[in-house]
Write a structure and sequence with these properties.
Strand order of the largest sheet: 1-2
Largest sheet: 2 strands, antiparallel
Distance between the termini: 38 Å
Structural class: mainly alpha
Number of domains: 1
Number of strands: 2
Radius of gyration: 27 Å
Length: 173
């Protein structure tokens, strides 16, 4: 019963709940989604850094074991200059005796894993841009709050979202 009478003689008091403000609900959803996207992007970036370090170590070890720079550059999809730089920066390595084919297999696996992480990063960044565009077009948050939530600069957000159509808040994830 939403209405009650008072025993002291009068009046009604409404005990129902107010309907939430639509803009506030949308802003809360976008805030939580932006926080989650920022966390995912941060995790992805740290995974890419760790995998890049492993790839560089493997390339340096292969160079130390006597593989040719050109062959390594082709397998790692790096320039010969980058392979030489990786080799020169790793002075504390000793020959391991691992065959060249095994080095190439490990490097190929690391490159495939790195490519998968790069695809995931692109998808996450795309979802973040859609969320930012939705928030800007709906006007539920200002650019400074969006910058704080996304980790991007205000001007960068404006450039990224220019001309984008807002997605429904429930689909923006």
């Amino acid at each position: 019963m939403p209405f009650t009478t008072h025993a002291d003689g009068g009046g009604y008091r409404y005990r129902g709940k107010r309907k939430p403000d639509t803009a506030a609900v949308q802003a809360d959803r976008i805030r939580s989604q932006l926080r989650e996207e920022r966390r995912r992007l941060s995790f992805n970036a740290s995974s890419i850094r760790a995998l890049s370090v492993r790839l560089n170590q493997q390339v340096a070890q292969a160079l130390c074991d006597g593989m040719k720079v050109t062959r390594l550059a082709g397998a790692a999809e790096l320039s010969r200059w980058a392979v030489r730089t990786i080799g020169l920066s790793s002075e504390d390595l000793f020959p391991s005796g691992v065959p060249a084919e095994q080095h190439l297999a490990v490097i190929g696996g690391l490159k495939a894993e790195l490519a998968g992480l790069e695809e995931t990063k692109a998808a996450l960044e795309g979802r973040r841009v859609k969320l930012l565009a939705t928030a800007r077009r709906l006007g539920v948050m200002d650019d400074y709050e969006l910058a704080a939530l996304s980790g991007l600069q205000r001007e960068t957000i404006r450039k990224m979202t220019w001309g984008m159509q807002p997605a429904p808040v429930s689909q923006a994830v």
